[in-house]
Design a protein that fits this description.
The chain is mainly alpha-helical and 87 residues long. 83% of the residues lie in helices and 0% in strands. The protein has 5 helices and no strands. The relative contact order is 0.15.
Length: 87
């Protein structure tokens, strides 16, 4: 499942930040291309609804943006960058 892969990648990023070990970040970066290929709008919608619990406005804006399949690459990288910055 792609959503489980992404959740595992988020855990690795958190582990990398807390442990100050870059190997986990490199592992996530190596997986991004494969993860991107497996994405679809349903997976993105589930991830946005699961992670953006603090701001309903942001969550709704991202859900509206997900409907455009052409933009799924931008959403993934923006989401991953948001998670990196948030951590």
């Amino acid at each position: 499942m792609v959503s489980l892969d992404i959740r595992e990648q988020v855990k690795l990023l958190e582990k990398s930040v807390h442990g100050k070990d870059y190997r986990y970040t490199l592992r996530v970066l190596r997986c991004l291309a494969n993860t991107r290929r497996k994405l679809n709008s349903n997976v993105l919608r589930r991830l946005v609804n699961g992670y953006f619990t603090h701001s309903a406005k942001d969550r709704e804006a991202l859900n509206a943006f997900i409907f455009d399949e052409v933009r799924k690459n931008i959403i993934l990288f923006t989401f991953m960058l948001y998670l990196i910055v948030k951590i």
